[in-house]
From TrEMBL:
The active site is at S71. It comes from Pseudomonas endophytica. Belongs to the ACC deaminase/D-cysteine desulfhydrase family. It comes from the Bacteria. One of its GO terms (molecular function) is D-cysteine desulfhydrase activity. Its cofactor is pyridoxal 5'-phosphate. The lineage of its organism: Bacteria, Pseudomonadati, Pseudomonadota, Gammaproteobacteria, Pseudomonadales. PANTHER family: 1-AMINOCYCLOPROPANE-1-CARBOXYLATE DEAMINASE-RELATED (PTHR43780:SF2). InterPro entries: ACCD_DCysDesulf (IPR027278), TrpB-like_PALP (IPR001926), TrpB-like_PALP_sf (IPR036052). This is 1-aminocyclopropane-1-carboxylate deaminase. Gene3D superfamilies: 3.40.50.1100. Keywords: Pyridoxal phosphate. Pfam families: PALP.
Amino acid sequence: MLPLIDWRPRAELQRLRLEWLEQAGVEVGVLRLDQIDQQISGNKWFKLTEHLAAAHTAGAQGLISLGGAHSNHLHALAAAGERFGFATVGLLRGHAQQTPTTYDLERFGMQLHWLGFAGYRARHAPGFWEPWQAQYPALHQVPEGGGGLPGALGCMTLVTQVREQLSALGWDDYDAWWLAAGTGTTLAGLVLGEAGQRKVFGALAVPDDHGVAPQVEMILRQAGAAERNLELIDASRGGFAKVDEALLRFIQDSEAASGLPLEPLYTGKALMALKEAVEQGRIGCGQRIVFVHTGGLQGRRGLAQAL
Ligand SMILES: Cc1ncc(COP(=O)(O)O)c(C=O)c1O
């Protein structure tokens, strides 16, 4: 049976120093989820914790989930399976290929099944899970990206982690959150944790038609949330995983100036969108912003190859 896992990593809140922030009089603290562990990195562990607790309660022996050939979610899940001793199965988008991520997945002991593109698109169809349930009756199903209400509940703890560390930055309070949003699950967790007190800005890594707003609303409704202090901002730069020169230059310059490693799909786009908001005066002088580094740095290896 899957063990009850009591690993509660603490992410450090660090000051981000960049010229454009200093010029605008905006202070940013980065919550370094990318640093919680060598392998189980980013928002993924927090999104998994409640799914793992549910799997334990159900008496499952492991977890089965979905993702692409560069998936940060499957990477964290497989690494957790190896670390804590439970079985993992990954259903992958597209046709069998070797990427640095899939190499790691197999090394961590995850059983992979390639669904093709049409097969993967059918993941929301009724009956999709039936054959997998029959093949792996002892495994607990986790939605793509570790999403849904359990995923969001696991991220609420980030609010406490930030509040406990404000004095390290010399802050007594902060004004808002800023983070990349893919499914909006992590953002929903912060909105729940804040209960309306501070605004949560989600920099969308996917285009508007990916339905992030309704997904966030569904999670908040399921949680019975009374407050919705949030704003979604288009940061996708033409589509998910679309990368352009200006973005790559921004990432390079930001890393060189601040030492903060970024990747182009989520954290790079999110920080670039914050810069635009600062330049437009939408984030004004004197504001204190918590930027969540949601990880994803393992994906840079595959992207470097592709580029
Ligand atoms: C590195 C990284 N940042 C941010 C996100 C977005 O998180 P969420 O799906 O909870 O919005 C993801 C995954 O989707 C991710 O892999």
